[in-house]
Amino acid sequence: MPAQRRFMPVRPLLRRLRSGERCWPAAIAARLAALALLAGFWRLALAERRLALTPRPHPATALDLLFCAAMVALLLGGLVLGIAGAGLLREVALPGPFSARGDFAAGR
Predict the structure, then answer these.
(1) How many other CB atoms are there within 10 angstroms of residue 79's CB atom?
(2) Spatial distance between the Cα atoms of 23 and 46, rounded to a whole number of angstroms
(3) pLDDT tens digits for 53-102?
(4) H/E element holding 88?
(5) At what angle do helices 24-53 and 62-84 cross, to 10 degrees?
(6) CA 97: distance to chain centroid?
């Protein structure tokens, strides 16, 4: 007896997302990933605050700058996934000169 598939294969799922068709598992996964990224941002922000204020204020170190860059990346990723969700992968039709069908060698 063949095993029953529980999950949707990746290629049809990506095709559905690119066409703009709604897919609730992808929307839920995007929102959960957004929550995880925002939770990671919060934990990193608390750790950076603790490093910056104890034992006394000090000039920024390379570790502080790395933490701040990671915080920005986590915050942006979480917000983009939270706002756009699964629609982030949707293909957008580009007008005339911006389309991939244009002949760039001819200058069109």
Answers:
(1) 14
(2) 35
(3) 877 777 888 988 999 999 999 999 999 999 988 888 788 777 776 666 55
(4) none
(5) 160
(6) 28
